[in-house]
Amino acid sequence: MLGRKVAFGALWLVGSRIATKAMNLIAMLVVARLLTPADFGLVALAATVWLILDAITDLSLSEALIRMRAPPKSAYDTALTMNALRGLSLSAIMLAMALPFAELYGDPRLTELLLALAVCPVFKGLVSPRMADLARALRLKLVFALEVSAKAASFVASIAFAIATQSYWALIAGLIAAPTINCLVSYILAPYRPGISLSHWREIIRFSGWLALSQAIVTLNAHADRFFVGGHLGQADLGQYTVGTELATLPTQGPVLPITRALYVGFAKLADNLDQLRSAFLTSHLLVVALTLPLGLVVAVLAEPLILLTVGEDWLKAALVIQVVAPMAAIRVLAVTVQPMVMATGNTHLLARREALAFVLRLPIILTGLYAFGFEGLVWGRGLSIFVYLYLNLDLARSILGVSLFEQVSAPWRSLASGGALVGSLLVLAQAFPADRADSLSLLVHTASLSCVGFLVYGGVHLLLWRMTGYPSGPERRVLQLLRRASEPA
């Protein structure tokens, strides 16, 4: 029963993520048509300041409340108070550093961008803490509604400002709209009368302290290189790198993040039974890899025509980023179920240690590529550094559940083999039937046709290997069951 609830909860969260990422993608592509890579690079510098400050102070209060069996009103008051104090503090820090940061990069426009973004942490800090109740009860339709409404507001704001001003303020408008609407809607979906308290701060920090540190280093791992790219290569290349990285990771991270949120709730209920947790971990591992791997591979192979169709020739440097990073990010899905499992078992200190090691090992690889070989070196450094993160995650699962690295990598062998067939078929077809890149309609039909062929090859090879091995329990059976259930009349 729990597995079914988690599965349907994950579907709602995946639907939410797909909807929000689709709106984010459309907005980014529309704005990219109107702005330059340098505009994106400028906003990326300012937004990275907010992202990193937000991450290094994030207390993961919702996750702490979820782990409490029956939290009293004072626990929710404590969570709100801590979050509000954090938001106000971050806003003050951003206001104080706006001018020095602009002087550091020699661009006075950064001052006004940081001043505008300083409102974001205030609204984020005032979100209803009762949203944790919805996640705990797996009422994820309401979580879906919250995320979609916030992203819709960001979408409308970005598009409207882009059309009206054709300036980088379109990106800032979207960044501000999302937390503002998220805060307001949270009180509609999860009503709560605010109160001030710090009575449960020790209990919350005991769980969330290590997790918060882990999330802080995750964000540093993901975004710290932007400061070096902006300083060394300039804002135009930073814009290409930022958009390329976003598009490269979108196909896999988009569906994966909501799945891991649902898995955390399910794993938390099995945390006292290691055998059941190990079985659930491996089952989820196979399913996540099977569903997300082909998305990243198709985008990687078709990166250049996708860039030409969506944002134009001015962004072709971003295609290189996608070609290198997207397949690496697709392989990284081998480790995405580790995070919710570690959180569910309460070993959040191990997450912090993992992220610290990843940061120490990955950033030098990326910076060596940047300073030694320029933009191409940066991209390859980013791609290769993903393997460091993959190894650390797999080793963490081994230490907690006793699942060997070989078992974790080899278990989804049908997905990996099907992925190889997908890539091979697309490369052969693209070479045998080249597209007319001067004709947008022809290029669109060609790219869409290759994408469909790739997915069909992946699914067909997957089912063929499943049949050849005697229909073992695995993601194929789970997907077919879900499809059969969805096709049944209500």
Question: What features would you describe in this structure?
Answer:
The model has no long low-confidence stretch (mean pLDDT 84). This protein has a domain at 1-210. The longest helix is centred in the C-terminal third of the chain and has 54 residues, at 348-401. It has 21 helices and no strands. It has helices at 2-34, 37-56, 61-67, 73-105, 109-117, 120-124, 131-136, 140-165, 169-189, 201-223, 225-232, 235-269, 274-301, 303-310, 316-331, 338-344, 348-401, 405-410, 413-432, 440-468, 475-487. With 490 residues, it is mostly helical. α16 crosses α17 (348-401). The chain is globular and about 65 Å long.
Integer-rounded radius of gyration: 22 Å
Cα distance spanning the termini: 19 Å
- SSE run: HHHHHHHHHHHHHHHHHHHHH
- Silhouette: globular
Task: List unreliable stretches of 5+ residues.
Answer: none
What share of the residues does DSSP label as strand, in percent?
under 5%
Structural class: mainly alpha
Count of extended strands = 0
Q: Biggest β-sheet, characterized?
A: none
List the helices and strands and how they pair.
Layout: H1 2-34, H2 37-56, H3 61-67, H4 73-105, H5 109-117, H6 120-124, H7 131-136, H8 140-165, H9 169-189, H10 201-223, H11 225-232, H12 235-269, H13 274-301, H14 303-310, H15 316-331, H16 338-344, H17 348-401, H18 405-410, H19 413-432, H20 440-468, H21 475-487
Helix pairs in contact: 1-8, 1-12, 2-5, 2-10, 2-12, 3-10, 4-5, 8-9, 10-17, 11-12, 11-17, 12-13, 12-15, 12-16, 13-15, 13-19, 13-20, 13-21, 14-15, 14-20, 15-17, 16-17, 19-20
